[in-house]
Structures are given as C-alpha cells and as structure tokens.
Design brief:
Helix content is 41%, strand content 15%. By secondary structure, the chain is of the alpha/beta class.
C-alpha cells in the first residue's frame, strides 16, 4: 500500500485530480490517499493557503501528487507552488515534452526533457516594493558599490544563482540522460548579459559536463534557444535551465507537443517528490468538467515510475497514447476546433482510459 499525499488544488484542479485518482486506482496498484487541501479556499478558511499540515503530510509520505493552485497576480499570498518547492527543497523540475501520435502539433516527432532549477533565480522571492526601506537600502548600496544608479521609484527583485544550486540541477540532468539512454544535454542561459548569475550557471554546467564524457554537451543563449525550439526542435534532447527560463520554455515546449493539456511534470528533491502538470488552474473552466486531465495523468505515470510500478506506468501510458491516436475520447483542446461537439469531458477521458486498462 502506497500512502500518498493528494492535493486536489483549486480552479479546475479538483475535477482533474478526481479523474486522475480513478485512473491510478484502476491500475490495481494499492494507494491510500492522504487528502490535503491547499490554495485559495483554504486561505479563506484557515488563513494560510499552505497550512503546515500539508507540508507535514508530504514529509511523512515522501511522495505527493497535486492539482494546480491559483496565485494572485501582483498582490495577495505568495505562490503555494513556489513555496512548496522551496520549503521541501524540490530542486529538480522535470518536464518531459513528447509528441504522442495523433496530437495536433506543427511537428511530427519531438521528445524533449526539460530540467528546470526550482529553488533559486528570480523565483527566490527576494523582492522589495517600490519605496520600501529594503528597496531604498539596496539602491544606496548599489550606488556606493558601483557607478550604477537605480531610479528611486524602482521595485527590486533579486536573482541569486549559486554554484550549489546549479551543480545539483545540471547533475540531475546528466544523470537522467545516462540512465535513460539520452544523447545530449543543452545548458540554457543569458551569460553574455548576466555574467555573474547566468555566467556562473554556464561555468558550472561546463564543469559538470566533464564528468559525463559519454553525453554530448552544448549551451545556448535563451533567446536563440526559443527561436531554435520553434524552428528545429528535433535538434534538442535534454535542456537544463535556471528557474525563470525553465518556466517560460516549459510552456513553449508544451505548445510544441499539442498544448498544456499534455505537459506533465515532477518536482524532485533529495527526500521528497511532488508530481504535478505544467499547467495552472485554468480558473475560467472551473466546475465545467471540460479541461484535459491528461497532463496530470501523465504526471501520475511519472509517479508510478518513481514508485517502481513500471508495469502500471506503461499500461497507463499506452492507454493514453492509444486514446490520443484514436482522437475520439479527447477533450476540446485536442479536437480540430475548440467548440467541437464531440469533445469528451474531463471525467469522460478518465472513463475511456479506465476502459482501456481494465
Ligand atoms: P493556465 O495554465 O491555468 O491556463 C492557461 C490556458 O491554458 C487556459 O486558459 C487554457 O486555455 C489552457 N489550459 C491550461 N490547462 C489546461 C488543461 N488541463 N486542459 C485544457 N486547456 C488547458 O495558466 P494561467 O491562466 O496563466 O494561470 C492560472 C492560475 O494558475 C494562476 O493563478 C497561476 O498562478 C496558476 N498556476 C499554477 C501552477 C501550478 O499549480 N503549478 C502553474 C502555473 C500557473
């Protein structure tokens, strides 16, 4: 029996989660779900969007699967998703981007894996509001230490990138490459402009690459990388990126494989693992039983592999592949037009997958 922390999330999270749980249970792998709500509604009820009980549950069970959680823009509570990754030191965000036959894509073949650093960079949450004491102090220090003037009406976000943080994510990418018979790792940065943060990430990438002579290594500047991913994505295999670029390129890559409805992910640290789709809570579709559960279902497949349940993982993955290839029981985002009347519902997709695996 696997005891797993289950965070349904908010927005469309609960309906997607329900579909995924039904599929995971249909594999016959025994699960006991430790359901822990977090997010907007919990904030209203408990005063925190991420109460300690959620973190304690993950610490106890070591493995969690979660639906998306809304983050207020520009105000309100800090992102639950980011806090979870930082507090549990889930430093590796692993996002496979594979084209399944039958998905509506501009390309035929693609099989990329993105390794996004999950704890540092502009996501560190070290920010000072315009006019605050912190902002003023930093403006003063910068003026004293360099000839640079920061305008007094500036808000400030700090971008820390460390040797420790960079080394472990780059190593995770190379270890994955080795273990999974991959050929190449590409380190992505803007070292020409941010010499001491992205430059450090690149230097560390080069150092780590020397320990893996069997895997090809190259680097790309982020802007060029985006252009190349759109023009010739087949040239790439594993990408390793600092946090912010990893976030943006993940959505770009999701677009290449048929949309966010198909892009799974895992946040993995030394002790704990939290599985979740790349997409957010898509709140405008909340309660409509409409959005695609496949991204979270594929995250569930990653969880099964993580637990060592390879047979069940392959079974669900094959069922998803066959569902996509048939193109019948798929949600609106995978149909020729979004208003296609034959589109399946969120729960309908789960029913169709369960019919294939049982
Ligand atoms: P989003 O990913 O929720 O949605 C963007 C668009 O992508 C949607 O309008 C929809 O058209 C499409 N989409 C997303 N998921 C889909 C699915 N499963 N099936 C079909 N179509 C899908 O991004 P957003 O609108 O920028 O963010 C909404 C909220 O989610 C924000 O509060 C954001 O902070 C949060 N968010 C959470 C996570 C997370 O929980 N890890 C990740 C990203 C964003």
């Amino acid at each position: 029996m696997y005891k797993i922390t289950l965070i349904p999330g908010d927005g469309t999270g609960p309906e997607i989660t329900e579909a995924v749980v039904r599929v995971l249970e249909a594999t016959g792998v025994p699960f006991e779900w430790d359901v822990q709500n977090a997010g907007e509604d919990v904030y209203k009820e408990e005063g925190s969007p991420l109460p300690d009980r959620v973190l304690e549950s993950i610490k106890k069970n070591k493995v969690a699967i979660k639906g998306p959680i809304t983050t207020p823009v520009g105000k309100g509570f800090r992102s639950v998703n980011v806090t979870l990754r930082q507090t549990l030191d889930l430093y590796s965000c692993v996002r496979p981007c594979k084209i399944y036959k039958g998905a509506r894509t501009k390309y035929k073949d693609l099989d990329l894996v993105i390794f996004r650093e999950n704890t540092e960079d502009l996501y560190a949450g070290i920010e000072y509001e315009k006019g605050s004491d912190g902002a003023k102090a930093i403006i003063d220090v910068v003026q004293k230490m360099s000839d640079r003037v920061i305008r007094p009406d500036s808000g400030i976000s700090i971008k820390p990138i460390s040797v420790f943080g960079s080394e472990r994510i780059v190593r995770a990418a190379f270890d994955y490459a080795r273990k999974n018979g991959r050929r190449k790792v590409t380190s992505v940065h803007k070292a020409n402009i941010m010499k001491f943060s992205d430059g450090l990430f690149l230097d560390v990438s080069r150092d780590v690459a020397r320990d893996y002579p069997d895997i090809e290594f190259e680097d790309r500047i982020i802007d060029n990388m985006c252009m190349q991913l759109v023009q010739k994505p087949e040239l790439y295999d594993i990408l390793v990126l600092p946090n912010l670029y990893g976030d943006i390129v993940s959505d770009l890559a999701a677009g290449l494989i048929g949309g966010l409805g198909l892009a799974p992910g895992a946040n993995i640290g030394g002790e704990y693992a939290v599985f979740e789709a790349t997409h957010g809570s898509a709140p405008k579709y909340k309660g409509l039983n409409k959005v695609n559960p496949l991204a979270m279902m594929l995250s569930g497949v990653m969880m099964l592999r993580h637990l060592g349940e390879k047979e069940a993982a392959v079974k669900v993955d094959n069922a998803i592949a066959s569902l996509i290839e048939e193109g019948k029981d798929v949600t609106y985002d995978m149909k020729p037009t979004p208003d296609d009347p034959t589109a399946a519902t969120t729960s309908g997709v789960a029913d169709a997958i369960i019919a294939k695996i049982t």
